[in-house]
Amino acid sequence: MRPRAIVLLSGGLDSTTCLAWAQARYECIALSFMYGQRSTTELDAARALTGRAGVEHRVINIDLGNLGGSALTDHSIDVPDQLQEGIPVTYVPARNTIFLSYALAAAEVFGAEAIVIGINAVDYSGYPDCRPEFIEAFANMARLATKVGVEGQALKFETPLLHLSKANIIRLGLDHGVDYSQTVSCYQADDQGRACGTCDSCRLRKQGFADAGVEDPTRYIP
Q1: Is 186 marked as binding a ligand?
Q2: What cofactor does its activity depend on (predicted)?
């Protein structure tokens, strides 16, 4: 029997690459979140992706929009159309900490031995919860906070994209058969899943395809 993993899946380029990578190694359960984000078409993409892949998919509802504090959850804060210095306004406070906590619970409930997350410390927007130190600290906490950890069977935290450029992430995904036209990365995609082409996420995605020498299959708003 194959080992099981919980894969955090947004429906974007990075997390979809992670799912494809994980499927080659684990029986996967994908975990997505409706957290009050500005655009939910990325979540629609996650549902469609897991349906085609035959992967069990759980969607967790939490309301980070009730707190605000980010351009992704508070409509009074504009999504910037140029790269920002420091930590950008698209950072959602504690988002990865909360997502990983749910993944931790799911791993114990479903008997998974690993959690897979697509954080990246190379081509990313400067979010503090996308750094190797964050994952190390969370893994240490998980060893203390879980039944499996206390019993000496610590969960693995798999971060296959951590040190890859966006171009190399795309190459990895293509090697695993990912159809990137079915993914949505834009912070403010429209109801059809078409990308704005100007936000941080769109810029990094565009540059990744250019650097990889691969045609960008993203659907953009005219």
Answers
A1: yes
A2: Zn(2+)
Q: Is residue 54 annotated as involved in ligand binding?
A: no
**How many whole angstroms separate alpha carbon 106 and alpha carbon 160?**
20
219 domain-assigned = no
**Could you list the residue range(s) of the whole structural domain that residue 191 is in?**
4-79+89-212
pLDDT tens-digit map of 159-218: 999 999 999 999 999 999 999 999 999 999 999 999 999 998 999 999 999 999 999 999
Domain membership of residue 217 (yes or no) is no
Angle at 66 between CA 121 and CA 30, to 5 degrees: 50
Radius of gyration of the chain (CA): 17
| pLDDT tens by residue, 59-80 | 999 999 899 999 899 888 988 8
- Specify the residue for token string 């190399």: 168
Pick from 23, 3, 65, 4: which is nearest to 160 by CA?
23
Q: Are 58 and 87 within 8 A, CB to CB?
A: no
Question: Does residue 222 form part of some domain?
Answer: no
CA distance 70 to 64: 9
130 is in an annotated binding site: no
**What order of strands is seen across the sheet that includes strand 4-8?**
56-61, 27-34, 4-8, 114-116, 156-158
